[in-house]
Amino acid sequence: MSELIICEKPKVAERVAKALSDSPVKNSYKRVPYYEIEKEDGYKINVLSAVGHLFSLKAKTKGKKLYDVEWVPLYETDKSKKYVKNYIDLIKKFSKTADRYIHACDYDTEGTLIGYNALNEICGSESIDKAFRMKFSALTRKDILQAYSDAYPLKEDKKWVDSGEARHILDYLFGVNISKAMTDSVSKVTNRYIQLSAGRVQTPTLAILTDREREINKFVPEPYWLIKAKLTKSIVADHKKGKIFDKKETEKILANCKGKDALVEKITNRKFKKDLPVPFELGTLQSEAYAQFGFTPRKTQQIAQNLYVEGYTSYPRTSSQKLPESLGLPNILKQLSKNPKYTSRIKSLKEPYKPHEGKKTDEAHPAIHPTGQLPKELSDDEQKIYDLITYRFISIFGEPAELESIKVDLDIGGEPFSFSRQRIATLGWLDLDPYQYKKVKNEEFPDIEENDKIKAKVKSEEKETKPPARYNQASIIRELEKRGLGTKSTRANIVSILYTRKYVESNKIEVTQLGEQIIDTLEKYSERITSEKMTREFEEDLESIKNDDITEDEVITEAKDELTGILDSIDENQENIGKELFSAYEQSRVVGECSCGGNLIIVSSPRGGGKFVGCSKYPDCKKTYSLPAGANVLKTKCEKCGLPLISYGKPRQRACLDFECANGGQKSSNDVVGKCPDCGNDLIKRMGRYGEFIGCTGFPKCRFTSSIVDYEKSQQKEK
C-alpha cells in the first residue's frame, strides 16, 4: 500500500515529510526533490510538491472571440516555465502505484484548485474518489500531524474547486478577449502591433485611480488663512474659526489681537482609555508594513508567505481577526518568551490569557499570528515583518492604555483661541508594542491655571486648499477591499500589474496618460468593463458558488453573455477606439523635446536589443540616446542641458539621458578606429555612462559595441 501527498511548494513538502517522520528519505527525479517515508507495516508515503499552479487555461480554438477554454500544462502557455514539466512527470510517476492521495496544498480557494488540478489532470479523475484533504493554518509539526489525522474526503471541497475554476475562467475570458479586442483595434487602424491589456478587476481598479486623477486635475485651489498665537513655553494656539476664507476678516482678527495677552478662560481635563488592537489579517498587515517600513503590499505578502512556509507564522492570506483557543495560545506565548526580545513583555501579561479580537472572520484560517517556533536566521526585512506580527500578537493580551488630555480655551483681544495636549497616563498594552507606542502623542503639559495671563504673538498663515490625496499602494488595496473588488490574495498583484503595464507610476499613485486614455476610451464606448458594479456582482457570484447557491456553469454562462455585449460595442467602434488608443500610446512614449523640434520618444530596438530614445522625425533627424538595461526615463530634467534624467542600475542612481552631459561634458571621440564586423560602417570611440567604449556609427540600426580592451585584443589577433 502506498500514499501520495501533494503539497503546493517544495519547502512545504519538506516540512510535511519531516513532521510525519523523523527520518524521511530525500530523493530526486529529473532534479525535482521528493520524500519517501516507510512505515513499520510496509505502508509507503511519498511526499511531492507542485510549484504553484501546474496548469493554466488555454482557448480550445482560435478565433475572434475566445470562449471555450481548457486546462493545459503551464509550460505550454508560458515558455519560461519549462521546469514545470518535471514536477508533472514526478507526480505522474508515483500516481501509477498510489492507493490513496492526500491534497496538502494551501487551504484557500487557489490552493484547493492547484491540488485538485494536479490530481484530476495528472493522476486521473478516478484519483479524486481516493483523495483526502489536509487543512492547516501553520506549518508546525503539531499542526501538520493534526491535519493529517483529521484529513477528510476531498469531494467535500468540490464547491471551492468550482469557485476557483470559475474565477480563473472569468479572468481569462475578460482579460484575454478585451485585451485582444483593444490590440486588434489599434492594429486595424495603424498596422502596428501594440500590446494593451484590460482585466475584470484590473480595469475597474484603474478606473478608480483615474477618477481620483481627474478630481486632482480639476481641483482649483482656494486661498485661506489660519490664525495662530505663539505663547510662552513653545505653545501654539489656534483661532477657533479654523480656515478663514475672507482676507478682510483675517485682518480684523489680527487687529483685535495686536498687543494683547492671552487670558486662560477654561482648562478641560479628560481621561480616556485606548483599547487594545486586534490581530492582523492580511489587509491590516499590509497597511501597517507600508506605514512603518514603506513596504509595498506585494512585498509584505511575499515576506509573510515566506515566514509561513518556514513555520514561524500562520497562513497570511486570511481576513480573520479571530484567534480560537484551539491554537494553544498560552503555549505560543511560552515559546516566544524564550527570546529575550519578548521575555519581559510576556511576563507582564496577566493570566488567564484572553486575546482582544476584531469582528472579521474567515471560513478557512485564523488571524495572522506567530506559531511559537522561533526563527533561526531572518533577513532584515523578514525580521521587521516577524516583529510586527509578534509584537501585535503579544499586545492583544495586554491591558487597555489610559491617556489624558487637556484643552485650554483662551481669549486674546476678544478672539477665541485654544490648544490641546495629550499624554500617556498608563502605558498598558502600549508598553508591549513599540511600533504602536511611537504613534501615540505623549506631550508635556504646561504649568498654567485658569485666569492666568500669557504673553501672545498672533500671526496669520496663508495657505491653499489641497486636492484629494492620491492613493498609495496600501490605501488603494483598502479601497478595493471596501468596494468588494478582488480578493485578499489578488489585490496586491493587481496593483503591481498596473505598474508593470505603465498605466500608473510613483509611490503616490499617478495614472499615466496611457492609463487615463484607456479608461476614457473604454468608458466612452464600453462603460460596463470599467464599472466596478459588474466586477462586484461576479465576486458575489463566486462566493455564492462556494455556498452552493449557484453553479459554476451558471456564472460562466452569465459572464459570456456580459462579455459578448462588451466585445460587440468595441467592434462597433473599432476605428475610433484604435485611433484614440494609438494616439495615447504614442504620447506615452514622449519623454522630451529634440533640438530639431521633434519629440524624443522611447523606441524598441528592431533587433530586440532593448530600448533607446530617438527623435520622432527620424529619418530626417537621427538623434539618439542609448538606455542602460532596466532604465526608467524620469520627468525630472537635467539642470545643465534640459534633457530628462534617467534612473538605472542597482542600487538605483540618476544621470542625464545624454551620456556626454552625464560625464561632465566630455565629448565622444570621432576618431575612426575600424570597420564594424556586423554592418561594415565605421567604428568610433564613444563616451558612455561607464566610460569610453567602441560603437558603430550605424546606431541605432546597428547596435554593435565593444569595450576598448576587448576590441584591441581582437585587433591584435587579426594582425
Per-chain topology:
Elements: E1 2-7, H1 10-20, E2 25-29, E3 32-38, E4 44-49, E5 55-59, E6 69-73, H2 74-77, H3 84-95, E7 100-104, H4 109-123, E8 131-133, H5 141-149, E9 152-153, H6 158-190, H7 202-218, E10 223-231, E11 236-239, H8 247-257, E12 262-274, H9 282-293, H10 297-309, H11 329-336, H12 340-347, H13 380-395, E13 401-412, E14 415-426, H14 434-437, E15 453-454, E16 456-464, H15 473-483, H16 491-500, E17 504-505, E18 510-511, H17 513-525, H18 527-530, H19 532-546, H20 552-572, H21 574-589, E19 590-593, E20 599-604, E21 611-615, E22 624-626, E23 632-637, E24 644-648, E25 653-656, H22 659-662, E26 672-675, E27 682-688, E28 691-696, E29 705-706, H23 708-718
Parallel strand pairs: 1-4, 1-7, 7-8
Antiparallel strand pairs: 2-3, 3-4, 5-6, 8-9, 10-11, 10-16, 11-14, 12-13, 12-15, 13-14, 17-18, 19-20, 20-21, 21-22, 23-24, 24-25, 26-27, 27-28, 28-29
Helix pairs in contact: 1-5, 4-6, 6-19, 6-20, 6-21, 9-10, 9-13, 9-15, 10-13, 17-21
